[in-house]
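Colleagues,

For the teaching module next term, I've prepared a clean inverse folding example: a structure given as tokens, and then the sequence designed for it. I'd like students to try predicting residues themselves before seeing the answer, so please don't circulate the second half yet.
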């Protein structure tokens, strides 16, 4: 405990990796032990996080049963009331091995809890595959694109398997790892989704031996620093002693990767108030998929490709829903289909507005304007986000109305002769005016002279 008392940095006040374990979900004592131990070390934002159940039609493996979910949520709700003056108690779940066809299931889970974490697990075949880093990065970024996940747990986990790769293939694995790191960090930066630095592997490891660890990966987190990714810290509390180690490990991390800074305070629901709902990313995904599905898109106007592609795209999606009937009840299918039709209608309307009102012509313009129009139609969007999005959209579409600089040069060439002509015309007019003035003056002088001589006689 002496090490905890003498810290030369500001420690984090949260941990979202609190696990009771599959067989202790219904044991209140485990929860209370974690909370009390956390409070003793200055952690007052305490997130419980178990692996999310699958749909009721699947047999869970290392996951809670769907029937356990209600008890889990109720237990944490009761603890929140008990500790309301001492701590922020959060209820979370982790989705492993993201499957796009289960999107509605994930949405349903998210609506019942405080936060949803993403944790992509490998399998034995992947661990010896030189392309696994790329496969992992693709899964992670697709999941992040849904906008459902509050953060990504130990996103560097794929770096652990290089020793499983044949020596002849290690260089290729390293190259793929660098690509994967950049892809994940870039997507996390784009969507403002935190990456979690997992301290668990540092427990019981001498600080001098950190460099030999595969994870946490120094290469990954150094790159995350360069991308300026939001980073949170976490430690697995299945072993209660880990909570006490956290403070020392935070200090050690400062020496291991000096420039890596983690959020000192983090509550997912507050953090997400300034990010976008999943419908935004879903719309981008739809537009991209339509564009890829149509051949010869370069020969067709972007508006035609997208508007004509909406109906067949959603028909295809409905076909997938039919095929998934084995894992969804009829009621769930109807709900998914209804949401599907609503999104189709929103995107179609946004495409027409982007085409007719804002005069979008390229895929890049549609990709910027349409998702924002869709989200602005949603009543649930945060007011701050709505106002900022409206402002950004208006700025963008106003810029679309500015004439192309290349066209300005053509316009200038057309206008220049007119200016010269006006100048010449002006010169001619001035000459005529001078001549006329002189003539009139002479006539007046002659007239006056005649009158004077007549009076003299």
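(Answer key — instructors only)
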């Amino acid at each position: 405990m002496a090490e905890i008392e003498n810290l030369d940095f500001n420690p984090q006040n949260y941990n979202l990796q609190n696990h009771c374990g599959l067989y202790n979900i219904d044991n209140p004592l485990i929860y209370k032990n974690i909370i009390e131990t956390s409070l003793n070390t200055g952690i007052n934002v305490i997130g419980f996080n178990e692996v999310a159940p699958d749909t009721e039609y699947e047999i869970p493996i290392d996951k809670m049963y769907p029937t356990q979910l209600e008890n889990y949520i109720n237990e944490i709700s009761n603890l929140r009331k008990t500790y309301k003056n001492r701590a922020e108690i959060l209820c979370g779940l982790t989705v492993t091995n993201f499957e796009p066809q289960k999107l509605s299931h994930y949405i349903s889970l998210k609506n019942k809890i405080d936060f949803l974490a993403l944790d992509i697990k490998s399998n034995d075949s992947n661990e010896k595959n030189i392309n696994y880093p790329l496969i992992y990065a693709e899964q992670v970024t697709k999941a992040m694109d849904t906008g459902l996940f509050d953060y990504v747990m130990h996103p560097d986990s794929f770096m652990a398997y290089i020793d499983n790769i044949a020596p002849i293939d290690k260089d290729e694995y390293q190259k793929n790892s660098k690509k994967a790191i950049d892809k994940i960090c870039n997507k996390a930066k784009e969507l403002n989704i935190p990456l979690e630095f997992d301290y668990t592997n540092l427990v019981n490891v001498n600080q001098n031996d950190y460099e030999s660890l595969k994870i946490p990966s120094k290469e990954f987190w150094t790159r995350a620093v360069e991308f300026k990714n939001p980073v949170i810290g976490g430690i697995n509390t299945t072993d209660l002693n880990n909570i006490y180690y956290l403070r020392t490990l935070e200090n050690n991390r400062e020496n291991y990767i000096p420039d890596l800074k983690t959020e000192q305070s983090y509550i997912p629901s507050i953090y997400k108030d300034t990010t976008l709902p999943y419908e935004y990313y879903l719309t981008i995904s739809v537009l991209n998929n339509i564009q890829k599905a149509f051949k010869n898109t370069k020969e067709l106007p972007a508006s035609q490709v997208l508007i004509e592609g909406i109906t067949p795209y959603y028909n295809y999606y409905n076909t997938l829903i039919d095929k998934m009937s084995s894992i969804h009840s009829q009621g769930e299918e109807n709900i998914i289909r209804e949401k599907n039709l609503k999104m189709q209608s929103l995107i179609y309307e946004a495409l027409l507005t982007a085409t007719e009102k804002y005069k979008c012509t390229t895929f890049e313009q549609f990709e910027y304007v349409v998702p924002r129009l869709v989200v602005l139609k949603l009543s649930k969007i945060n007011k701050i986000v709505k106002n900022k999005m409206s402002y950004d959209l208006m700025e963008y579409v106003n810029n679309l109305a500015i004439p192309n600089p290349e066209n300005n040069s053509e316009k200038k060439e057309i206008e220049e002769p007119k200016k010269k002509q006006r100048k010449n015309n002006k010169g001619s007019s001035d000459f005529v005016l001078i001549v006329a003035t002189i003539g009139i003056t002479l006539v007046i002088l002659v007239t006056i002279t005649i009158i004077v001589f007549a009076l003299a006689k």
